[in-house]
Design goal:
- One of its GO terms (biological process) is cilium assembly.
- The protein is α+β, with helices and mostly antiparallel strands and 757 residues long.
- Among the domains are: 290 residues, YVTN repeat-like/Quinoprotein amine dehydrogenase (Methylamine Dehydrogenase, Chain H), CATH 2.130.10; 89 residues, no CATH class.
- 16% of the residues lie in helices and 42% in strands.
- The chain has twelve helices and 59 strands.
- α5 runs antiparallel to α6 and α10 runs antiparallel to α11.
Length: 757
């Protein structure tokens, strides 16, 4: 990926002295109204409008000579659920201590005395209900939409050079010398403050999608932080101070500006591309709404434009590159065939997976099959700017500012799920997951909640209640294969613990089971339900995660682990296709890992009930992990004969004996119940026995598990075998030399004669 930059031969912001001498004035700020229109402000007191479609530049207004613009921010496009196609007005801060509310046509609607000294930055919150300004006087002030002062959030002795809103518009991040400070709007709430740089911090930005913070300083470094102030990335020192940083809207990329320097970086900090344009210092960077291009305000009077090109997508033997804004190149590495895909409008987002390429342009969506690149399926988009594309085997999901849309690969709209307080602009691949029958979305308002929808209808799954965890969830992922009733979701919480649970829940509370700790990143396989993740210093593959519901003790034997120190700090799993896993290291390099192909073949045999083939495969491979997986799969599918062979092969003799005892049981229901008991599902086993009238067996199960109260309760309720329960209880107490203290047992012991052994 790189930036394709363009600069005019002569700058448009020029100041003439005595109509003869022309002087290039620095451009202080830029801002996009639409994806093709930009406004720029300069020390020549002019506001210019740039139309990228017609390459025209026009003057919007000439400001009074005492107004030197410093910062510009357009009013948000989506307010109160209504989404405008373009921004209508902007705030302009200036060196005279005022901020100015200016319409799109250039009319100054209001000028407000805000600070003593220059107003160094001004930012609207995401809802457009409040404006924050900071100044040379060290004050941070919150204003209403109409420019009325609401509060002075902070006051300090040093100038505040930059400010940004938190994703929920409840907190404000601002600079204070070498410090970064996050202050909530609520009074008396805890303030977070940390040293960010060794020099003065000049710029900061906070992304609403990934919740990460950028900072840039006079120490010539840029840094990436999480919202708790933990350092995720620190750049090497540049030659000159970093004068600007800015996140792309979707939070996948950011740009860095310095003297004669423009850099494109991944969200984790490593650099995709470095350009050295003749710009002077780049004082301000603004990304277009669709994230395909950016503009920079240059110290030499220029406005630099840069398009993001040469993005790459890979899947199996296909490699696709965006070579121009409207052209993609498809390379089949097997036969070296090359195809060119031309689009009518510029490409905004694309995704390649499951044999299909889905491309969204500014107006349309194209669906290509990897078998035929010549005839794409094309349909028009309701809303131009698609922010996310997710694919599953049968469907794909488009996310834009208006909502979530699930389509089939034939271009048919399947459903459009909704939930209360839905904000689609902050969804990304970590907070949304799609499988063939299920869609899962992490709630932003309450980060402990995951909403789960049925793909076909778009309605909440099961009893309609969302899945709730005890702590905040960071990343979610649905498994891709198998039956809907067995669909599992894996998620990482704030403590970096990995949990797994079933998505189908009707009334009963589903067990959420922890299967890993210190997990950085995870991914499900595309063709079988194998999960991989990087936990602490180990790369781990859970060949059959469902083992936790079948035989928890067996889980460690179904894992594959290897040392992950080669991945360095903060690696991310990019793909898990077939038996190949692609991991991106913190420096941007890709590492490809191969795992054994046999577990996937075992999954295939088991899903089509080929138990003999599965046993034959395990005997051929001679691997304990495979036998452990087969044992768990057999118990899950109630095939106890195969389970007996598999458990015997891994030396679990006690379990083999128990399985043999199950086989000798007289009735089918009894065998079913004891199979459930084997998996630890006591409640379900008891319910099954009671439903089929096997009262004594249900009581005996509880006695064997020392659930004395429940055993007595069942005996009393069904008026049978009370004496048996009391006899077993008495023998139990005698064995341990204890006396009866349970009031219920004492009460019933008085009225029942207990047979002596």
């Amino acid at each position: 990926m790189r930036l394709k930059t363009s600069l005019l031969k002569e700058p448009k912001h020029i100041l003439y002295f005595l109509n003869l001498i022309k002087h290039k004035e620095l451009v202080s700020c830029v801002g996009w109204t639409t994806a093709e229109e930009l406004y720029s402000c300069s020390d020549d007191h002019q506001i210019m409008k740039w139309n990228l479609l017609t390459s025209e530049t026009t003057r919007v207004v000439k400001l009074p000579d005492d107004i030197y613009p410093i910062d510009l921010h357009w009013f948000p496009r989506s307010v109160g659920g209504k989404k405008q196609s373009y921004a209508e007005s902007f705030v302009l801060t200036s060196s005279d201590g005022k901020f100015h509310l200016i319409s799109k046509l250039g009319r100054v609607e209001k000028s407000v005395e805000a600070h003593c000294g220059a107003v160094l930055a001004g930012r609207w919150n995401y809802e457009g209900t409040a404006l924050v300004t900071v100044g040379e006087d060290g004050q941070v002030k919150i204003w209403s939409k109409s420019g009325m002062l609401r509060s002075t959030l902070a006051q300090q002795g040093t100038p505040v050079y930059s400010v940004a809103w938190g994703p929920d518009s409840e907190k404000v991040l601002y600079t204070s010398g070498k410090q970064l400070i996050i202050k909530p709007l609520q009074p008396n709430a805890k303030v977070l403050q940390w040293k960010g740089h060794d020099g003065l911090i000049l710029k900061t930005d906070w992304n609403s999608v990934n919740d990460l913070i950028l900072s840039a300083g006079e120490d010539c470094k840029y840094k990436v932080w999480d919202s708790y102030g933990r350092l995720l990335y620190s750049s090497q020192p540049h030659e000159y101070p970093i004068t600007s940083v800015a996140w792309a809207v979707d939070g996948e990329l950011f740009a860095v500006g310095s003297f004669h320097t423009l850099r494109l970086c991944d969200k984790t900090g490593w650099s995709y591309a470095l350009e050295k344009p003749n710009t002077g210092s780049i004082f301000n960077i603004a990304w277009s709404i669709d994230g395909t291009q950016l503009a920079g305000a240059c110290g030499n009077g220029h406005v630099i434009f840069a398009h993001v090109v040469e993005q790459r997508w890979e899947w199996k033997n296909f490699e696709i590159t965006l070579i121009k804004r409207r052209t993609m190149e498809v390379h089949n590495v097997v036969n070296d065939a090359v195809d060119l895909l031309e689009f009518r409008d510029r490409v905004i987002k694309a995704s390649l997976n499951y044999g299909h390429l889905v491309v969204s342009t500014s107006l349309q969506c194209y669906v290509f099959s990897t078998k035929n690149w010549n005839t794409p399926l094309i349909f028009d988009l309701k809303e131009g700017t698609v922010s996310l594309i997710l694919q599953a085997e049968r469907y794909f999901l488009l996310v834009d500012g208006g909502g979530l849309y699930l389509y089939s690969y034939e271009g048919r709209l399947i459903s459009s799920p909704k939930f209360p307080g839905m904000r689609t602009d902050i969804l990304n691949a970590q907070t949304v997951s799609l499988s063939n029958d299920t869609l899962a979305i992490k709630d932003k308002a309450d980060e402990k909640v995951i909403y789960i929808f049925e793909a076909l209808s778009g309605k909440p799954l099961g009893d309609g209640k969302p899945l709730t965890h005890k702590t905040e969830i960071v990343e979610i992922a649905l498994d891709q294969k198998g039956l809907t009733s067995e669909r599992k979701i894996a998620f990482i919480d704030k403590n970096r613990d990995l949990y797994i649970t079933s998505v189908k829940r009707f009334g009963k509370e589903q067990k959420i089971v922890k299967i890993g700790t210190m997990v950085q990143t995870l991914a499900w396989n595309d063709t079988s339900n194998i999960l991989c993740g990087i936990q602490d210093t180990r790369f781990t593959v859970w060949y059959y995660p469902n083992t936790v519901y079948v035989d928890k003790d067996l889980l460690p034997k179904t894992l594959y682990e290897k040392d992950a120190s080669e991945f360095s700090k903060n690696p991310q799993i990019v793909h898990f296709v077939g038996n190949q896993i692609t991991v991106r290291r913190a420096d941007g390099s890709l590492i490809h890992l191969n795992i054994s192909p046999y577990p996937a073949i075992l999954h295939e045999y088991v899903s089509s009930s080929k138990w003999e083939d599965a046993v034959r495969l395990c005997r051929f491979v001679k691997d304990q992990t495979m036998w452990a997986c087969l044992a768990a799969m057999a118990v899950a599918n109630k095939d106890m004969a195969t389970a007996e062979i598999a458990y015997a092969s891994i030396g679990e003799i006690d379990k083999v004996q128990y399985i043999n005892s199950i086989k000798d049981l007289p009735s089918k229901e009894s065998r079913m119940a004891h199979t459930l008991l084997f998996s630890g599902n006591t409640q379900e086993a008891e319910t099954l026995l009671l439903q089929t009238g096997l009262i004594y067996q249900a009581i005996q199960v509880n006695i064997n598990l020392y659930n004395w109260d429940r055993a007595l309760e069942l005996a009393v309720k069904h008026k049978t075998h009370v004496d048996t329960v009391l006899a077993y209880r008495q023998k139990f107490l005698e064995d341990f030399g204890k006396k009866e203290t349970n009031k219920r047992f004492l009460q019933y012991a008085e009225g029942v004669s207990i047979p002596q052994n």
